[in-house]
Amino acid sequence: MRRGEQLPWIVSDELWARIEPLLPVVPRRADHQGRRRLDDRKVLSGILFVLYTGIPWEFLPQELGFGSGMTCWRRLRDWNDAGVWQRLHESLLAELHAAGALDWSRAVIDGSHVRAMKGGPKTGPSPVDRARTGSKHHLITEAHGIPLAASLTGGNRNDVTQLIPLIEAVPPVRGRRGRPRRRPDTLYADRGYDHDKYRKQVRAVGITPVIARRGTEHGSGLGVHRWVVEQSFALLHWFRRLRIRWEIRDDIHEAFLSLACSIICWRRLKNLALC
């Protein structure tokens, strides 16, 4: 890290200004106040520290001032239940859309396996990892690789089963005059999505499917468009907590996945401001 550069898990004023209004207000009890609730901004830095470093919750260093690992875990759970991470992602997408940074001419979809060390819901024998227990991250991005939606399934689920659910998971993106944008013009995918049944379903929602066909030679040229989703997976798995699934509870891992998508959008937004 360069001298003077802020640590990535420290929440900047600009990011906090976007997150704070989304957090639920927890009033103090008048009859049994107890210890004062730890500052939300510090706890969020603790959550980001775990996301970036992959450190177990119980080993979160107390000297950082972010609270205990259990405190951070509870806030992550509660904020996820309150829809904070989804609303944050939607608001950042709206800012990117307002800045003209989203290219809706095409979207790209793909899946990526991760090992699930402790099992739990949404896990299964991975066909690419000697049937070890794993999960899959599914991702749909716009033309530049900005995440529009992500989901989690068992490692044995076929990618194509998440094609329509991921399209439906793309939120209405505001930020410009007129109706919110939700559907790309075309959708690019690899041979794993080669089913005419699903092509018809994609066309039914107003999107043109561009999907490689099985049995044809490689070199179709679709890779020049599909590589952006691979880049986005690399960015997601740069967060060490997402490289391997350590959470038994699927909602906690999904919370990390949604938060990471928001951080990627936030970085794109900051880069626009520097241009």
Automatic annotation (TrEMBL):
What InterPro entries has UniProt attached to this entry? IS402-like_dom (IPR025161), Transposase_11 (IPR002559)
Does the keyword Transmembrane belong to this entry? yes
NCBIfam families this protein is in?
Answer: transpos_IS5_3
Q: Where does the Transposase IS4-like domain lie?
A: 107-263
Q: Which organism is it from?
A: Streptomyces vulcanius
> Keywords of this protein's UniProt record, alphabetized?
Membrane, Transmembrane, Transmembrane helix
Q: Which residues form the Insertion element IS402-like domain?
A: 11-89
Name of the protein this chain belongs to: IS5 family transposase
Where do the TM regions start and end?
A: 43-60
> Transmembrane helix among the record's keywords?
yes
